[in-house]
Amino acid sequence: MANEKQRKLHAIVFPLPYQGHINPLVNLALKIASKGLAVTFVHLEFVHRKLSKAHHNKTTDVDFFSEARESGLDIRYATISDAFPLEFDRDANFPQYWDFLFRDFPAYVDEFIGKIVQSDLNSDYFLIADACYAWPGTIAAKYNLVNVVFSTEAAQVFCLVYHWDLLSENDHAPIKGNIDHVEIDYVPGAKSINTKDLMTYLADPESIVSEALYAGLYLDNKKADFILHNTVHELEFEALSALNKHQPNYAVGPTNLFKDNATNTVSKSLWPQSDCAKWLESKSPGSVLYVSFGSLVQTSKQVIEEMANGLLLSEVNFIWVVREGILDSGDTNHVLPVGFEDEINDKGLIVPWCDQIMVLSNPAVGGFLTHNGWNSTLESMWCGVPMICYPITYDQPTNAKLVVDDWKIGIRLCDYGVSVDRKVVAEKIKSFMSEKSFREEAEKVKETYQNALKNDGSSERNFDQFINDLKKKLACRIDN
């Protein structure tokens, strides 16, 4: 028994290989290590290579957790191959790559975890994997590991997917025929939602993404011992309470903003750095609209042009992050209207990268025009900045619905669809930036989020409860 008490609890952490999934899980890993547990964080080799290049390190032995380890945390770094050449363009071959992640990657993970577990018999391992993966339940069971799922989506989104069967029974996953504007009010824990606000991956069951997420988010997650959510209890307690009737669920977010924050280091490394601070200092409080869309979303040239002209017509100050990956051509000079940067003068600032939290927390910023990826939505709420919502895909429409209808901290740029008109864009921006009520509501949400991460806040208490429950679960498995 004395030896058993000295055994180290050790997390093996697998993020989905996309920036919006990596960042919150990096911070979760650091948080777990801060509780005295060991952590091995596993990147795919192509992600490791991208980060290595961004850090301008010519060696391949880059350790992104070295600072944390120097401070006494037991956090390790490992890589795993996905069998594709490093130069293979995984974004350009998205369906092919997702098919691999769904069907073939689990065998690589199985072998990888088997070697780790067998190499150290003095540790009690448990698995923490992104909720989108379809393999954790099977592999955890094979190696008798406690299975912890981490959801990088809103709890409302997770709750809807958790009841994929109910949506299917009611012809709402996918929508059959020409059913439009139907309210869904039968999912336990989920607030009433229009079918047009559902996640886009529910619409096409034939796509590899939908098939993979059905296997992961719906089927495999039901095998989890614990489910962690990157949200706060106060804003999504109905969904979390309903989910707790099935499995232990914990709202521990926003993990992007944990005090032991290594996320910014990773994020900054991927994009050229630009300093917006001096420009913001010259603007009056609440006068600047921050515009940024996720790098994985392909936005058409026409939309970008209409956005650009709408911003000019609005006469509102703005910072616009236009970076590689957001545009069809990948070349901002060919997509932004000719002469646009000259015409904006000092009213606008075009940058390829910025520290998003730094910008959103600046008093000059009064709004955020966003696709509503969950990380950006969290960061906007954390800073008390209301949003103009322009969702395109995945969970973005549902996140926008939460922002606009449930939390009253934003507006939609357009009703249900992706087409935009420059005059409408200008009118919406003008009206939004002059409306104080959104800022007032956003300040209330900001207080809720920041209170959750205080020492006695709900997310801190939930995290401590998770660690205690995890230790009890591991102890039971050892005894058995």
Radius of gyration: 22 Å
CATH superfamily of the largest domain: Glycogen Phosphorylase B
Poorly predicted runs are 260-273, 325-333
Structural class: alpha/beta
SS summary, helix count: 22
How much helicity do the residues have? Answer: 40-55%
Return the domain count: 2
Q: Terminal Cα separation, in Å?
A: 13 Å
Write down the CATH topology of the largest domain: Rossmann fold
CATH 2nd-level architecture of the largest domain:
3-Layer(aba) Sandwich
> What is the highest CATH level, the class of the largest domain?
Alpha Beta
Strands ordered across the widest β-sheet: 3-2-1-4-5-8-9
Task: Please describe the biggest sheet, giving its number of strands, its sense, and whether it closes into a barrel.
Answer: 7 strands, parallel
How many β-strands, per DSSP?
Answer: 15
Principal-axes geometry comes out as globular
Strand composition percent: 5-15%
Mean pLDDT: 88
What topology does this entry show?
Elements: H1 2-5, E1 8-14, H2 19-34, E2 38-44, H3 45-54, H4 66-70, E3 75-80, H5 94-103, H6 105-119, E4 123-130, H7 136-142, E5 146-151, H8 155-162, H9 164-169, E6 183-184, E7 193-194, H10 208-219, E8 226-229, H11 237-243, E9 249-251, H12 263-270, H13 277-281, E10 288-292, H14 301-314, E11 317-321, H15 332-335, H16 340-344, E12 348-351, H17 356-360, E13 365-370, H18 374-382, E14 387-389, H19 396-406, E15 410-412, H20 422-434, H21 436-452, H22 458-479
Parallel strand pairs: 1-2, 1-4, 2-3, 4-5, 5-8, 8-9, 10-11, 10-13, 11-12, 13-14, 14-15
Antiparallel strand pairs: 6-7
Helix pairs in contact: 2-12, 8-11, 14-20
